C-alpha cells in the first residue's frame, strides 16, 4: 500500500504547538513501516499535489487545506484526523473522518482556532488510524 502523509500544521507562536497538530505521527509511521510512505513537505503547486494524491492508495491528513483540495478536484478520498473542529461541519462524508470524542470540539466552531491550546488527548490513537488504513481497498 502507498500512503501519503500530510502533517499540514502551520507555524504559530514560538514555543507553542498548533492546536491541530496530530501528536502520534511517529507511532503511526512505526505501524506503517511495511508500506511505502511519502510525506508532503514544503509548498507544492496544484499539479505536483495532484500527482502525489494519484500516486497513493490512501492519504492521511489533519483538518487542513488538503481535504478541501482533494474534494474540490474530485480526487480520491482519504483519512482526516480531527481534534477540535467538527467534521460534521468542515468534513466530507467521502473521507474517513476520525474524531475521538465530540467533547473535545471547541464551543464556537466558527471562531479562529489559533488561540486554542494543543490537547493531544483530543486525537484518536495511531492504532485507530492504522485500523482505518487497513479498511481502505
Annotation keywords:
137 residues; Rossmann fold; alpha/beta; 5 helices; single chain
Written description of the protein model:
There is one protein chain. With 137 residues, the chain is of the alpha/beta class. The chain has one domain (2-135): Glycogen Phosphorylase B (Rossmann fold, 3-Layer(aba) Sandwich). 28% of the residues lie in helices and 16% in strands. The protein has helices at residues 25-31, 46-55, 65-72, 87-90, 126-135, and strands at residues 2-6, 36-39, 58-62, 79-82, 96-99. The chain has a 5-stranded parallel β-sheet with strand order 2-1-3-4-5, with helices on both faces. Strand 3 (58-62), helix 3 (65-72) and strand 4 (79-82) form a beta-alpha-beta unit. Helix 1 crosses helix 5 (126-135). The N and C termini lie close together (9 Å).
Amount of helix: 25-40%
Enumerate how many helices there are, as a single number.
5
| CATH homologous superfamily identity | Glycogen Phosphorylase B
Average per-residue pLDDT, rounded, comes to: 91
- CATH arch. level architecture: 3-Layer(aba) Sandwich
CATH top level class name: Alpha Beta
Overall structural domain count: 1
Radius of gyration: 14 Å
Global shape: globular
Number of DSSP-assigned strands = 5
- Quote the beta fraction: 15-25%
Major sheet description: 5 strands, parallel
Question: Within the CATH hierarchy, at the fold level, what is the topology?
Answer: Rossmann fold
Q: What oligomeric arrangement do these chains adopt?
A: single chain
Amino acid at each position: 500500500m502507498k500512503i501519503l502523509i500530510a502533517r499540514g500544521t502551520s507555524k504559530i507562536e514560538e514555543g507553542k504547538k498548533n492546536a491541530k497538530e496530530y501528536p502520534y505521527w511517529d507511532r503511526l509511521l512505526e505501524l506503517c513501516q511495511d508500506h511505502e510512505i511519502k510525506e508532503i513537505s514544503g509548498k507544492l503547486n496544484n499539479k505536483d499535489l495532484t500527482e502525489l494524491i494519484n500516486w497513493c492508495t490512501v492519504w492521511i491528513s489533519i483538518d487542513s487545506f488538503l481535504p478541501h483540495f482533494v474534494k474540490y478536484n474530485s480526487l480520491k478520498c482519504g483519512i482526516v484526523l480531527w481534534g477540535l473542529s467538527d467534521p460534521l461541519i468542515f468534513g466530507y462524508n467521502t473521507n474517513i473522518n476520525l474524531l475521538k470524542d465530540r467533547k473535545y470540539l471547541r464551543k464556537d466552531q466558527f471562531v479562529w482556532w489559533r488561540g486554542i491550546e494543543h490537547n493531544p488527548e483530543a486525537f484518536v490513537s495511531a492504532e485507530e488510524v492504522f485500523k482505518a488504513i487497513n479498511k481502505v481497498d
